[in-house]
Specification:
Helix content: 25-40%
Strand content: 15-25%
Structural class: alpha+beta
Number of strands: 20
């Protein structure tokens, strides 16, 4: 069986993996299907361990689908003298771009504008700023080239004011004296997580979403497994809740680490680490709203602001504010949007307004808590602790260094289990990576053989790598699958079918928000695509007319709730508006309480 087939997360595979969860004992059971949890499942499976992963909602449903879409070393961490963190991140960037996932991680050019100043007196300041920023970017390149494990990115260049405006005409001429252009990596964060989960499954891992861990199993002072609730089970089903036995449990729950803390508090233990959530809001505007060939990185009073090209769009972000409300659905407020527009408009010749905004999304960074009041100053390093025998917690870190976090926590598990092989993931290409370079080189021939436009094949290759051949086979078997999706013509019907058939998608939200990014790439945010997508998904998942209608109704209600939250003046009001629509997997389940009981307050 090929890796691609072995890694298909089909409805039949989910049913089989649920049976395995009930019947078998695992070496490692991982709670959390974000980038760290999926990375840990892959790391453990690649060492030959018997692995299971359970995710309460969808893969990457939380923080891991709501980032700035960058694989980067963290240029600003050089300024904070975090050399170890930059070295580590640039090494991972090089591995992802050249070896592990070149189909998902590719270079994106970014300008560092140098502030302008008037008159002769401003010349020393301009010289100092160019020298200061130039030295930082040069050091960034040195770290990438010497320590980066395969650069995968071009070197930086200095640009004059005229040169900067040639590559980014929308820059105000009076706002910059020049710029420095460097490169970082860009990624579709949610697709990378799904690919990690599929790669782990291809190596034998049991991987199940919509499966919530609701309690720890203990024998004396040792954790021996987890009690799990299948959120897709019919109401009242005796199989909805069951026990999963494991020699070691790893909790990779990010901003939900407090949930594990409460489970430990029940037995009189403290987890040994604290995680603080920082909200990051991003705006999405059409490419036509800003004229430029590169991204921008701008200094703000509290952190940095990115303006990043994203296909036919720009992503503008991010904020960095403390968040203590609902963690499953962080909401953007009108204040967040006004802040981002004000920051970016300071350097644009045509100011953006709310009318330019196509989409908005908000995510939560899991930061190791410290004494600082500013979340932008909290550590982006990670920690692994063992608060109870048989239970490991991993938290903190940043998206780019997921593989290091995964390796560290699995190393601890291996030592507990009595030895084993070291991590192999630095040399293990993810599904879709093998042969990608050759397919990209010959993409015109591939398009001709399948009777497809070259642009469509390029779109598929940049999302699926060599798995594009599976989608082309799907289209060959049913030409209707080549039709564009209603309301989002840059995507194909086949991609919705494939998401349900092979990528573990169970609900419309899974597809329109994560397998695709229609929820923030279109002005209607997927509302116009929901009906067509429901028909395609329903054909795979066996939905009847009532189920299809319910999925569409829920998705459109969610879109409307998010729009309302964006009109609210502050976080509390925005959170209340967003929570007006329950999670598609059920509000009671999403908050970890029994149906019919009183939900916890949103600030839990």
């Amino acid at each position: 069986m090929s890796r691609a087939i072995a890694g298909q997360l089909s409805p039949a595979r989910r049913a089989a993996d649920l049976r395995r969860l009930r019947a078998e004992r695992f070496d490692v059971l991982i709670i959390g299907g974000g980038v760290t949890g999926a990375g840990a499942a892959l790391d453990a499976a690649s060492r030959g361990l018997k692995v299971a992963l359970v995710e309460a909602r969808d893969y990457a449903a939380g923080t891991s689908s709501r980032s700035s879409k960058l694989i980067h070393g963290g240029l600003r961490y050089l300024e904070q003298l975090e050399f170890g963190l930059v070295h580590e991140a640039l090494t991972e960037r090089g591995l992802l771009a050249t070896r592990l996932a070149p189909h998902l991680v590719r270079p994106v050019p970014i300008l560092v504008p140098l502030p302008a100043g008037d008159g002769v007196r401003a010349v020393p300041g301009r010289f100092w700023r160019r020298s200061y920023y130039g030295a930082g970017v040069a050091m960034y390149d040195v770290f990438a080239g010497v320590f980066g494990g395969g650069r995968g990115m071009p070197l930086h260049r200095h640009l004059t004011r005229e040169g900067a405006r040639r590559v980014f005409p929308s820059l105000r001429s009076d706002a910059v004296s020049g710029a420095i252009r460097y490169h970082d990596g860009q990624v579709d964060d949610a697709r990378l997580v799904v690919t990690l989960a599929r790669t782990a499954a291809s190596l034998g891992a049991t991987v199940v979403n919509s499966a919530r861990a609701v309690g720890l199993l203990r024998q004396a002072r040792e954790v021996t497994g987890v009690r799990v609730r299948d959120l897709e089970a019919p109401a009242g089903s005796p199989d909805a809740e069951f026990e999963v036995r494991a020699r070691t449990v790893i909790a990779a729950t990010g901003v939900w680490s407090d949930d594990m803390s409460r489970m430990l508090n029940d037995v009189g233990l403290r987890p040994g680490l604290r995680v603080r959530a920082s909200k990051g809001v991003h705006l999405v505007v059409p490419r036509s709203a800003i004229t430029g060939e590169t991204g921008l990185i701008l200094r703000t009073a509290t952190s940095v602001l990115f303006v990043i090209p994203w296909g036919g769009h720009w992503i503008i972000g991010t904020t960095d504010t403390d968040w203590q409300l609902d963690r499953s659905h962080p909401a953007a407020s009108a204040r967040d949007i006004e802040y981002l527009l004000a920051q970016v408009n300071a350097v644009l010749d045509r100011p953006l307004t709310t009318a330019d905004i196509e989409g908005v999304y908000a995510g939560l960074r899991p930061l190791l808590s410290g004494d600082s009041d500013s979340t932008s100053k909290l550590s982006r390093e990670h920690a692994v602790v063992e608060p109870m025998l048989g239970l490991l917690l991993v938290a903190g870190g940043k998206y780019t260094t997921y593989r290091v976090m995964a390796s560290d926590v699995v190393d601890r598990a291996v030592r507990r289990l009595g030895g084993g092989r070291p991590s192999r993931t630095a040399d293990l290409p993810l599904l879709g990576a093998d042969g990608y370079a050759a397919l990209w080189r010959d993409r015109a021939d591939l398009a001709r053989r399948h009777g497809m436009p070259v642009g469509v094949v390029e779109h598929l290759l940049e999302r699926y790598g060599n798995l594009t051949l599976e989608l082309l086979a799907l289209i060959a078997a049913d030409p209707l699958q080549a039709a564009p999706l209603v309301g989002a013509p840059e995507y194909l019907a086949a991609e919705v079918t494939y998401a349900a058939r092979a990528e573990g998608a169970l609900h419309l939200d899974d597809v329109l928000t994560r397998r695709m990014r229609i929820s923030f790439e279109t002005a209607h945010r997927g509302a116009e695509s929901a009906g067509h997508a429901a028909e395609l998904m329903g054909a795979v998942l066996g939905w009847d007319a009532v189920t299809r209608a319910r999925e569409v109704e829920h998705y459109r209600a969610r879109v409307e709730a998010e729009r309302q939250s964006e009109q609210m003046p502050d976080d509390i009001a925005a959170d209340a508006a967003r929570l007006g629509v329950p999670d598609v997997r059920g509000l009671a389940a999403d908050r970890g309480v029994e149906p019919g009981s009183t939900p916890l307050p949103s600030s839990h």
